[in-house]
């Protein structure tokens, strides 16, 4: 306080003690959402219990026992109590425990829970996030319905709860507990608890760190698993209508704590710990999913020397790693491409060479054929010319022979004889020679003239 400083007295109430009220108002205006997953065998009373818990009739047809696998069916309802709005989602396991091989029954439940976490994570990672209006579908509570056998937990129950315990808040309940006697129920509860502990199954424990609810919560933790009875049927007891199940030997009142733990479940689930279940889902189960997922994607908070490593650094390191890998891959592909081109080129060259050789071979063959044909043509032309000459000469001679007729003399016969002897020795001759020789044949006797003409012009005929 400096000298001359003016002291300002408080003019009234400062007001930050109204922060909780502001928070409440904001939350009430915004409304709440709560998501329950009911896991249990078909017909164990899941739907009846939900109807009893929220005092309403949710839709839901009974399931057949012949489902090929486990499916998850979710329904969302808008409920209102006073001025508080609740968006309630009830997810049911359809066909759970109905298959002969139940080995994979838990898988679809795990996948469903993870899918809801993934959807939330994707929304969180968006650049433009709208988480305030986002419909959060993450499962806040899993009511695990145990059959009232009075013996012990089935392996299906143990395996499923073990697989789910790190992903969701499990509240085990003994369904249809009116089917089990009081003494058996106590033993059954102890047996279940010891089996869960010995198998390391972590069920949801009601929180005891908040003083206001620590006592009730720790007492309730001792009552787990709750033995419940569900019914929407109202029966008049005294002068009051109560929810109950009537049997020939008596009436089981759902809200009577001496008859079953329904009220305890309702108190713990809805009135006392609903917000804690929501919080645990976000801070424990979703956080674990998110961490594993980001680590899987290669994000880390520290580098190998345990020094803080920011998201930016992780991103850059990943980017560099990716780029160098990309370059390596690119180089590899380039090399492969060059290699393939070389191989293809060699293949094409080989094929080209073969084609050239084939072309040369064919060309030579063609030339030989052509030469042979030309020779043959030439021979035929010669023969044709010869034939034409012979034909002309023959025609000429025939004409002359006809003109000469029968005026032949002995003298001429003699001369012709001499000439015939001469001509028969000739092998080749021209048309001039033929003409000349034919002059002599004219003087021979008529009986021999045709024979001589034939021998002169068609020697082949005679030889045949
Ligand atoms: N004894 C007894 N019967 C019950 C109880 N709760 C429900 N039931 C009866 O069990 C039968 C099946 O109940 P649902 O609520 O349809 O069972 P569910 O688990 O929803 O069945 P699905 O949806 O087909 O898997 C009905 O006839 C109910 O009346 C209970 O606490 N005790
Ligand atoms: Mg049902």
Automatic annotation (TrEMBL):
<feature type="domain" description="Septin-type G">
    <location>
        <begin position="30"/>
        <end position="296"/>
    </location>
</feature>
<dbReference type="InterPro" id="IPR027417">
    <property type="entry name" value="P-loop_NTPase"/>
</dbReference>
<dbReference type="GO" id="GO:0005929">
    <property type="term" value="C:cilium"/>
</dbReference>
<dbReference type="GO" id="GO:0061371">
    <property type="term" value="P:determination of heart left/right asymmetry"/>
</dbReference>
<dbReference type="GO" id="GO:0003140">
    <property type="term" value="P:determination of left/right asymmetry in lateral mesoderm"/>
</dbReference>
<dbReference type="GO" id="GO:0035469">
    <property type="term" value="P:determination of pancreatic left/right asymmetry"/>
</dbReference>
<dbReference type="InterPro" id="IPR016491">
    <property type="entry name" value="Septin"/>
</dbReference>
<dbReference type="GO" id="GO:0071910">
    <property type="term" value="P:determination of liver left/right asymmetry"/>
</dbReference>
<protein>
    <recommendedName>
        <fullName>Septin</fullName>
    </recommendedName>
</protein>
<feature type="coiled-coil region">
    <location>
        <begin position="312"/>
        <end position="390"/>
    </location>
</feature>
<dbReference type="Pfam" id="PF00735">
    <property type="entry name" value="Septin"/>
</dbReference>
<keyword id="KW-0342">GTP-binding</keyword>
<dbReference type="GO" id="GO:0005525">
    <property type="term" value="F:GTP binding"/>
</dbReference>
<keyword id="KW-0175">Coiled coil</keyword>
<comment type="similarity">
    <text>Belongs to the TRAFAC class TrmE-Era-EngA-EngB-Septin-like GTPase superfamily. Septin GTPase family.</text>
</comment>
<dbReference type="GO" id="GO:0071907">
    <property type="term" value="P:determination of digestive tract left/right asymmetry"/>
</dbReference>
<keyword id="KW-0547">Nucleotide-binding</keyword>
<dbReference type="GO" id="GO:0060271">
    <property type="term" value="P:cilium assembly"/>
</dbReference>
<dbReference type="InterPro" id="IPR030379">
    <property type="entry name" value="G_SEPTIN_dom"/>
</dbReference>
<dbReference type="GO" id="GO:0042742">
    <property type="term" value="P:defense response to bacterium"/>
</dbReference>
